[in-house]
Amino acid sequence: MNALEQGSPRAGEISLDAVLAAAWRDLWIVVACVALFTGLAATAAYMMVPKYRAEVVIVPVKADDARSALAGMVGQLGGLASMAGLSLGSSGNKDENLQYLRSHGFTARFIDDQKLLPVLFSARWDATNSRWNVDDPDDVPTLADGVRLFDSSVRAVQEDRRTGIVTLAVVWKDRELAASWANLLVEQANRDLRQRAIDDAQASLRYLDAELAKTIVLELRQSIYRLIEGQIKTMMLANVRDQYAFKVIDPAVAPDADDWIRPKRAAMILIGAFAGLLAALVVVTWRLRRAQQRR
């Protein structure tokens, strides 16, 4: 009774000191658990397929950039350019172009054009027979599945609002493919946006030409001429610039073979060792409790 009044441990309670003492006494359990979990973590880390990250650094083209690009051409035109009153335009809204680069529609076209579904879902693809190796037709990956995978874990677009610099990164298990896809994405976005600008300008010119033929009012005809001029400069810009919407500052290159970003093998092994230590403490505590119950 006096021992209880003095604060001795109640039945069933195990103190931390007792657990640590038991762990030291049964050190073989600690060593075995740590070795086992560390080995499992190391095996998993080295069995995982490495993933590589390739980046292309770009800048959305601004109106000032477009004027600089065409200044030399207009200078060469000399008097003809002056007579035509040709002015310089821009390559579109940079935020709109950046959103296009991130859009699902653009991603779907890229996956379809490059025939990436068998690459993205290679585990389900029978390359020998060129068919999907699935029993249920519902398990055949769709283009929507490819877009979701590409957006969630393959392609990332980050913009530095302060500098305007955009980084497009591709993460994939094939380092050469990662670099190739990153560069191709920018090339296709520039090509698509350039063609869209040309198509829009041509449609506008057809409409303006029709309106010009219907009016004899001098002021209205002059306004139409100015609108035609604007469409001509847009087509001119689109035709002379390969990097129409995005200027490449640093193209993507394939990382070195040992320069993967996942898995983090050292971190996985350390986590495995820590998990083994915790498991050892659980085992030691369980053994202490069993021994206490047998008394």
Give an overview in words.
- The protein has 295 residues and is an alpha+beta fold.
- It has 2 domains: 78 residues, no CATH class; 199 residues.
- The protein has 12 helices and 6 strands.
- It has a 4-stranded antiparallel β-sheet.
- Strand 4 and strand 5 form a beta hairpin.
- The radius of gyration is 33 Å and the shape is elongated.
- The two termini are 19 Å apart.
What keyword list fits this structure?
295 residues, 10% strand, two-stranded antiparallel sheet, 12 helices, single chain, alpha+beta, disordered N terminus
Task: Write down the secondary-structure element order.
Answer: HHHEHHHHHEEHEEHHEH
- As a percent range, the share of strand residues is 5-15%
Helix content: 55-70%
What is the total tally of β strands?
6
Computed over alpha carbons, the radius of gyration is: 33 Å
Category by helix and strand content: alpha+beta
Uncertain regions spanning at least 5 consecutive residues: 1-8, 64-91
Task: Give the overall shape, derived from the CA principal axes.
Answer: elongated
For the sheet with most strands, the description reads: 4 strands, antiparallel
Strand order of the largest sheet: 4-5-1-6
Number of contiguous helices = 12
From the N-terminal CA to the C-terminal CA, the straight-line distance is: 19 Å
Short description:
With 295 residues, the protein is an alpha+beta fold. The protein has helices spanning 2-5, 16-25, 27-47, 63-77, 79-84, 94-102, 104-114, 117-120, 143-154, 175-214, 218-240, 265-294; strands spanning 52-60, 125-126, 131-132, 155-159, 166-172, 246-250.
